Amino acid sequence: MEELYARYRRDVAFLCIYVREAHPTDGWRIASNDKAGISIAQPKSAADRCAVADRCGATLSITMPLLVDDLKDTVGHLYSGMPDRMYVIDKGGKVTYRGARGPFGFKPREMEQALAFTLVADSDLPKPEAKRPAEPAPPK
């Protein structure tokens, strides 16, 4: 995603939104987090969630804008963003790409293709006109 952000950041608004912790120590804990030294309790306040999001952004070297969902998980619920998901939304607000849920559905190259098509569709370039079949000459 960081590569795509670097490549398209002048043409597209990228946002990374931190939603609730997927595998908190006080919830659905997984062994791979323990092995990686990731030990995070589900944040109970907005300040706690922001602190965890900051830590996540620093650990993953996220350079795109990082926003934080509210404690009601409004964005996470609206966009089915658990544990992660990628979207492309055009200038009119229409979703033109919705990736499968991550981490297995996290396919940046697939998203890039949809992004490229969306940029062309949203561009101010003149759209090619549909060609009409030639009309037959009138009978003589």
For the record, give the distance between the C-alpha atoms at the N and C termini, rounded to a whole number: 65 Å
Element-by-element helix/strand order:
HEHHEHEEH
Tell me the Rg in angstroms.
21 Å
Poorly predicted runs: none
Strand order of the largest sheet: 1-2
Count the domains.
Answer: 1
Under the CATH scheme, which architecture would be assigned?
3-Layer(aba) Sandwich
Q: Share of helix among residues?
A: 25-40%
Percent of sequence in beta strands? 5-15%
Oligomer: single chain
Shape: elongated
Q: What's the CATH H-level superfamily name?
A: Glutaredoxin
Largest sheet: 2 strands, parallel
Number of strands: 4
- CATH class, please? Alpha Beta
Q: What's the rounded overall pLDDT mean? A: 83
Number of helices: 5
- Helix and strand content put the structural class at alpha+beta
